[in-house]
Amino acid sequence: MPTRRLMPDVIKNQTLSCLPPDATARDAALLMAERRIAAVLVTEGRTLKGIVTERDMTVRVVAAGLDPDTTPLSVVMTADPDTLEPSAAAIAALDLMERYHYRHLPIAVDGEAVGMVSIRDLFAVVRAHLEDELRSREAYMFGSGYSADASVG
């Protein structure tokens, strides 16, 4: 896991879901529903301005009693979010997300959005790493022909 980089090891061929700061909360909700995602990057061109998540929509729009049809994302987004570079280690993203309770973290280069990593993406990497470790240890302890999945005859 420590050697896995955010791009291309964790995420690759990602289509960014971005909206401008003057788009409405309803626009963001519709985009999230259409793409079955939980966060949208707020950008001007490719320049990252913020991030809006499902949690932001719940707390900052619905619970606050704002009208999603007229509330611009600039009002409810997390402005200037923490980011990591594509070459950052997956463990660095996991540490940052755990420390600040993020579930989504933008990936940027010189202020330009190039991706977004989710806790689900990182979970998949951790799981694959643990499975590889288990297979490696089983092979060491029981020999290379051993498999926990082998059926007993």
UniProtKB/TrEMBL annotation:
Domain of life: Bacteria
Gene3D superfamilies named among the record's database cross-references: CBS-domain
InterPro entries named in the record: CBS_dom, CBS_dom_sf, Diverse_CBS-Domain
SUPFAM superfamilies referenced in this protein's UniProt entry, alphabetically: CBS-domain pair
Keywords: CBS domain
Domain CBS: 10-68, 77-133
Name under which the protein is recorded: CBS domain-containing protein
Organism, scientific name: Azospirillum picis
